[in-house]
Design brief:
Blueprint: H1 2-25, H2 39-59, E1 73-83, E2 92-101, H3 104-112, H4 114-125, H5 130-133, H6 136-154, E3 162-170
Antiparallel strand pairs: 1-2, 2-3
Helix pairs in contact: 4-6
Length: 171
């Protein structure tokens, strides 16, 4: 009798484990009614609905202001860690950049040119001193200079529309 109980419990545990595995790792195999909800997809759909509604309101009877920008796509670059110029103790800059481009096609172009862009950014950053980059004015000058340098490096003055700092740490 004990053997039968042990076998039944083992089968129930195995079936429960298999069900949990399907639920977490292959939810597309389950019926829609018991499929787990994807939080990221829900958030993305809600955000896109909100943007569409806002854009619809903007376009109704209003012209774009001169200060308003076109739609922009972010092309994220890998982290940059460089030695900064200057005497004394070595100083380091760790930064992550995102480049604003017009559309997905240009984002792919940025990926293709990432080697050239990274080289340009690294060479430019290693010439800067920590004192130049500590205040807001210095960061804004750096952003403008990187924008110009990157567009010159890729040979297209209109490819990158903006440069954004996602991370900026001087040590």
């Amino acid at each position: 009798m004990k053997k039968i109980i042990i076998i039944v419990v083992a089968v129930v545990v195995l079936l429960g484990g298999a069900g949990a595995g399907v639920y977490f790792f292959k939810p597309d195999l389950l019926p829609a009614s018991i499929r787990p909800k994807d939080k990221n997809a829900e958030l993305a759909a809600a955000a896109s609905d909100g943007k569409d509604a806002k854009e619809g309101k903007k376009d109704q009877g209003k012209k774009k202001d001169k200060g308003e920008h076109e739609k922009e796509v972010g092309a994220d670059l890998d982290v940059f860690v460089v030695n900064l110029a200057g005497g004394g103790a070595p100083r380091y800059l760790r930064t992550t950049l995102s480049l604003g481009v017009k559309d997905e096609h240009e984002k792919e172009k940025i990926k293709e040119l990432s080697g050239k862009i990274r080289d340009t950014v690294i060479m430019y950053l290693t010439q800067r001193k920590a004192e130049e980059l500590t205040d807001l004015e210095g960061k804004n000058k750096l952003r403008e200079a990187l924008h110009k340098q990157i567009n010159e490096a890729v040979g297209d003055e209109k490819l990158v529309t903006n440069v954004y700092f996602k991370e900026f740490l001087i040590q």
